[in-house]
Automatic annotation (TrEMBL):
<dbReference type="GO" id="GO:0050606">
    <property type="term" value="F:4-carboxy-2-hydroxymuconate semialdehyde hemiacetal dehydrogenase activity"/>
</dbReference>
<dbReference type="Pfam" id="PF01408">
    <property type="entry name" value="GFO_IDH_MocA"/>
</dbReference>
<protein>
    <submittedName>
        <fullName>4-carboxy-2-hydroxymuconate-6-semialdehyde dehydrogenase</fullName>
        <ecNumber>1.1.1.312</ecNumber>
    </submittedName>
</protein>
<dbReference type="InterPro" id="IPR000683">
    <property type="entry name" value="Gfo/Idh/MocA-like_OxRdtase_N"/>
</dbReference>
<dbReference type="Pfam" id="PF22725">
    <property type="entry name" value="GFO_IDH_MocA_C3"/>
</dbReference>
<keyword id="KW-0560">Oxidoreductase</keyword>
<feature type="domain" description="GFO/IDH/MocA-like oxidoreductase">
    <location>
        <begin position="139"/>
        <end position="268"/>
    </location>
</feature>
<feature type="domain" description="Gfo/Idh/MocA-like oxidoreductase N-terminal">
    <location>
        <begin position="17"/>
        <end position="129"/>
    </location>
</feature>
<dbReference type="InterPro" id="IPR050463">
    <property type="entry name" value="Gfo/Idh/MocA_oxidrdct_glycsds"/>
</dbReference>
<dbReference type="InterPro" id="IPR036291">
    <property type="entry name" value="NAD(P)-bd_dom_sf"/>
</dbReference>
<dbReference type="InterPro" id="IPR055170">
    <property type="entry name" value="GFO_IDH_MocA-like_dom"/>
</dbReference>
<dbReference type="GO" id="GO:0000166">
    <property type="term" value="F:nucleotide binding"/>
</dbReference>
Amino acid sequence: MSLHREPVPLVLAGARGHGRKHLDTIRRLALSGRVRLAGICELTPLSGAELDGFGAPEQSTDLTALLRSTGARVVVISTPIHTHTALALSAAEHGAHVLLEKPPAPSYAEFQRLADGIEAAGIAVQVGFQSLGSHAIDAIRDLVADGVIGDVLGIGAAGPWTRDEAYFRRAPWAGHRRLNGDDVVDGVLTNPLAHAVATALALDGSTGAGDIEAIETELFRAHDIEADDTSYVAITTTAGRRIGVAATLCAEHPDEPYVVVHGSRGRVTFWYKQDRVLVQRSGHGPEESFHGRTDLLVNLLDHLEGRAALLVPLRATAAFMRVVEAVRDAPDPARLPPKAWMRVTDEEGSARRVVHGIDALVAACADTLDGFGALGAPWAGAPKEADAL
């Protein structure tokens, strides 16, 4: 005889912007009886239309007060980067488990403070790297373990994306490295294309802080912002492998980001937003496959019921946070000269900036594991090596 399971009371902190995607997921889970949206923490209350299907959850600008009044067992945090640590620790103090958007913290010190706090509280924190919920991750690991592409020589990643100028005006913290004295570190590698970095690290098996030997950064900006929008990072792991990630928000023709595992006898390319894998190897034709994905909130709920391990526990993002720290510690991104980019306006009047030749350059970085400077970009200087880790 099956036992009736009460819906898990849940609070969503940050319900607009990317938070709307979380709201959609919560709505599906509420309809199936898995969760109950008990509260929403937002600066401006959500309208009845936005809350369609949820009844009347409590709304407040004070997460601590919401946790006390709702008794929420789970909190989804999709708020500005520099608020993550304080809000997650508030949830921990009230015994609530957390799905925390990436990056989990704006600095390694804040990350460690968060890790210490959740360990003391005994709560679970899942970090919102959705790509790490893809079943393709294990499939690629199996391919590598079986020697399908030979010995792994290195891992590259490319993110040829675009964002219009309004993207950097959407919130006071957008495009900032710091705000009112607080670290934000809202760069292309640490926020919009953070999945490329985290996925490459996961496929290499280098997710712990001690798995990283050295980090080099090349940070640039075409937009009138403080943070980087066109960057490359080279990560040397303690296993002696190189991971090279190139990303831009100024692509000529934006395309799906991908991670490529280079082997001595072939390569595996993973388009992580599509859960698509392409194997290319000596003596065989190309082999393409598509894979399923486990939702990270569902996985967190399963974990709380003792039915699954967390897919992206906080400790598994420590190596990624070393990259965030390297970007944070690097000199401010260099402004690209006006001749390196152009401004494009679409029919609706939306303007964006395009760096000449950046699509091919980003792809070349992923192929060669070399940075912009080594590949001859005229605007790229020597990379900066991070302090010893």
